[in-house]
Amino acid sequence: MWQVYFKELTELMRDKKTLIFVILLPIAIFPVLFAIVGAVMATTTNKAMQEQHRYVIINEQQAPEFAEALFYHKNFKKVDTSLSTEQELISAIRNDEFDVALVIPADFASRKAAVQQTEWQLIYNSSSQLDFMYNHFNDLLTTYTEELQRGALSQLGVDPANLTAIIKPVELTRVNTAEQRENLGESLGAVLAYALVLLCLSGAMYPAVDMGAGEKERGTLETLLICPISRTSIVLGKFLTVLTTALMTALITVVSLGVWGAIISAFADLSKVSDALAAISVLDLVLMFSLLLPTAAIFAALLLAISIYARTFKEAQNYMSPLMIVVIVPLMVAMAPGMELDVTTALIPLTNIALAIKELLKGTADYGLLSLIFASTAALAAALIAYCVHWFQQEKVLFR
Amino acid sequence: MIEIQDLAKAFALSKNNKLSDTEKQDVRYSKDAFHSVRNVSFSCSSGEVLGLLGPNGAGKTTTLRMLSTALKPDAGSVLLNGVDVLKQPVKARQQIGFLSADTGLYGKLTAFENIAYFGRLHGMKEQALKQRIDELFTLLNMHDFANRRADSMSTGMKQKTAIARAVVHSPKVVILDEPTTGLDIMTVQTVLDFIKGLKAAGTPVIFSTHHLDEVASLCDRVVVIDKGVSAFSGDIRQFRALADNGDLRDAFLSVLQGGISQQQQGAA
Against a cut of 0.80, is the pTM above it? Predict the structure, then answer.
């Protein structure tokens, strides 16, 4: 078995494709990912914040102070219009004549004087994810309504010193019990698990194809089969090689994440991030790696079984492509809001690993559940390895 | 000594497989199986070279695969120096040196590494392995490309490496499937000389080929397989006698045209 293992490893280490998938990709993926996502987010957000919105205001004479504040706001640009009905305004927005329309009722001034509530209408397309326009508008309206409240209360003879307490009797201050690490784990955990599991899969894919279908295509399989070692030893040797490359990919990824995280934190002066990362103990990393071990074993056994069945390199790759989708779905489930690690989710393959990695990063992992995940994943891996060994004994598979 | 008796092997056909008109006429096809080898018997003693002949798809490679333990026979027996390959496959493998028709090598490994890998799989110790590889490099003129990776070798270099790999563990029985196909004249001569060397050392050699001149210069015995049965099995003189002019090509064609009845005439 070890002869097969070391020979396969030697061959893989001399292969450029393996070096790219196992070493280069994990090292490069995080800085590249951080850089691209960061640049796109910063550009988009900045653009959305700076954007100037064209507006029309109907019956502006009813609220001249508000109209003036809106006119001088840097994010708003007034457009004159003769339109007045809701339908006309909606059509104009759809035709890109302006972005937003504020409709103040024609009797607002008289209702205000009579201390009666009035409804204003804001018409705009709110489909954008970065809806800064509404925030700008709301800030202006809050200031304006507070001024109105102050004016009304003063007219009623209320002591100006008490106005603030009357307008806003309760001021809520939030005290977050979550540590910085918990926040970081919640936002980064699912993404990290997603990347780690997929890298395990991609790290295992090419070696598996090479060691099964590649062996058939090169014509070396037959010679190997008639060596005086059991077929179980051959499969296990190959399986261990695929497992090694998958884990190497994951390990290099974790190290890369650590190194690049430290570099970025140092340069960007993100002390909170570096403090949070420093709170992750060696035990947490070992546990994370321990969970990836049976996961990588599942991939190695599955991919090797597929590869052994395939007649050619290309056929093996065609069979393996749908596997990526099968793996992504449970990982996406783990990223869904509200998904928590419990006894049920601990038994869902891959979802459990992603949730566990998130909990470990947050520092809130339940060791009982982690044991359950390890046991269930290891059991599944063992079953798949046994199946792979059985598969390799079949003439109809080896000599298709 | 290699003894093969009543060997048979069938491969299941896919349920969706529809037989063509030609296949329906072929006795090897049944409703749900292709009987690649139906009844093959022959023997090869120590120091003999046996030429395995037959048209493409006759069942030669399947027979050799059963001999080498890569495939399990459905019926019949194979004894290699008294070892039953069905009952003791691992022990049988220790005795076999097998060269497949593919010449498959590991492209990222050098000639030395390719051979050494299989030597280790046969349980050879490092010192003995190095000595044996050096001996084979001399015999097959391989020293010049000992450290060259297989994916940058010529066809001849690859074939020599594959042959050296097949015999690195000094097997008691050697099986070569078309060892000279696609090689230049010089390399063919090296391979043939090497087979003669094995014969001189008393090793029984079975080799399948389409080159009748190689059969004439090397073989003591000839077996012709056609449609999964041994259509002829006898010594080279008996085979040559099948043609009035003693030409091996005519003898081969007469076996194929005469079908399995020739087996009786030519049986030793």
Answer: no
